[in-house]
């Protein structure tokens, strides 16, 4: 393999997230320092024209080639970053320009493998490249991805997911984790580990991105459901069984379960557990309470129950979560 360079194309377009574009090439550039021959990657930035592109950070970047240029070549890896808009309530919405989507579909047909960075998964999905596949994206747009593309199995927790020749990465700095995984696939984990050390990173990050996310409040459309949610918050330490909630709402247990599924897309038990985990997160971040006290104050009968809930919802433990997010 000496002297062989894999041709990597990173898409560039107006408003693209800067780190999505610059992060992977940094990882690939370090590879050459850590190998004994000239093997590695030849990375180019491709845009619709050769005019400078203004990223979301306001930094202007020059493309190397146009989409038409790279469409005539064999591509080893097509890297697709993303872009977002944020509304006046700070809600994040991934953007998918139809013209860009068409180019993604065209260039993917020339590529050995395709990888999205952060919300670039929305572009892959719009191009039909994620149909029937498991995929991830930034946690803030995972619900949007699932709603817009029901044929995609969206999992918002993993840092990256590989499904066949298609890779999807989670949010922002996870572009580095994804790039390291590509290096590991191409050159082995030993080389990837050396690159990771140069970046002062884990080769495999402990636990997923759910631990960094903030809860996205589901929107309910009825006063009854709003009152039920307030009731859960006010009585977080109570048993809060389905029977209790049904009695409070003056409906049958079957109707209550149907209300939660229709209004919030979840079950009563899952919603209650999520509310308790969120209450526990707040205490772990802002107090020195023992795990026993946190568990008791948030409706968990035991510390073991608290730990299991954290593993299910956040992919980590309360102790690990506190060590990362405790406000000092």
Task: Give structural notes.
This protein has 328 residues and is α/β, with parallel strands linked by helices. 45% of the residues lie in helices and 16% in strands. It has 14 helices and 13 strands. A seven-stranded mixed beta sheet has the order 5-2-1-6-9-13-12, with helices on both faces. A hairpin with a 5-residue loop joins strand 7 and strand 8. Helix 1 runs parallel beside helix 6 and helix 11 packs across helix 14. The radius of gyration is 23 Å and the shape is globular. The chain starts with a strand and ends with a helix. The model has no long low-confidence stretch (mean pLDDT 89).
SSE blueprint:
Elements: E1 5-11, H1 18-33, E2 40-47, E3 53-54, E4 60-61, E5 65-66, H2 67-70, E6 75-80, E7 84-86, E8 92-94, H3 98-108, E9 111-116, H4 121-126, E10 134-135, H5 142-148, E11 153-154, E12 160-163, E13 166-169, H6 174-187, H7 189-198, H8 223-234, H9 242-249, H10 253-264, H11 268-286, H12 291-297, H13 303-314, H14 318-325
Parallel strand pairs: 1-2, 1-6, 2-5, 6-9, 9-13, 10-11
Antiparallel strand pairs: 3-4, 7-8, 12-13
């Amino acid at each position: 393999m000496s002297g062989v360079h894999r041709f990597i194309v990173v898409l560039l377009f107006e408003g693209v997230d800067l780190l999505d574009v610059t992060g992977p090439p940094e990882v690939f550039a370090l590879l050459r320092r850590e190998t004994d021959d000239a093997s590695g990657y030849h990375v180019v930035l491709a845009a619709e024209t050769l005019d400078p592109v203004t990223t979301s950070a306001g930094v202007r970047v020059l493309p190397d080639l146009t989409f038409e240029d790279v469409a005539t070549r064999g591509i080893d890896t097509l890297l697709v970053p993303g872009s977002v808009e944020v509304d006046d309530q700070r809600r994040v919405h991934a953007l998918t320009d139809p013209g860009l989507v068409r180019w993604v579909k065209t260039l993917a047909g020339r590529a050995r493998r395709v990888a999205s960075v952060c919300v670039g998964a929305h572009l892959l999905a719009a191009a039909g490249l994620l149909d029937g596949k498991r995929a991830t994206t930034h946690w803030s747009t995972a619900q949007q991805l699932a709603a817009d593309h029901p044929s995609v199995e969206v999992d918002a927790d993993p840092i990256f997911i590989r499904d066949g020749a298609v890779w999807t990465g989670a949010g922002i700095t996870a572009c580095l984790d994804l790039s390291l995984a590509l290096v590991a696939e191409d050159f082995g984990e030993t080389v990837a580990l050396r690159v990771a050390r140069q970046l002062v990173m884990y080769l495999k990050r402990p636990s997923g991105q759910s631990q960094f996310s903030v809860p996205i409040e589901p929107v309910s459309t009825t006063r009854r459901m709003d009152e039920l949610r307030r009731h859960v918050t006010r009585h977080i330490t109570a048993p809060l069984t389905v029977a209790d909630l049904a009695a409070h709402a003056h409906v049958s247990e079957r109707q209550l379960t149907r209300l939660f599924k229709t209004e919030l897309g979840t079950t009563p038990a899952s919603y209650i557990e999520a509310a308790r985990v969120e209450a526990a997160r707040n205490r772990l971040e802002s107090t020195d309470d023992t795990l026993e006290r946190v568990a008791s104050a948030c409706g968990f009968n035991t510390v073991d129950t608290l730990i299991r809930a954290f593993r299910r919802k956040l992919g980590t433990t309360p102790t690990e979560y506190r060590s990362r997010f405790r406000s000092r």
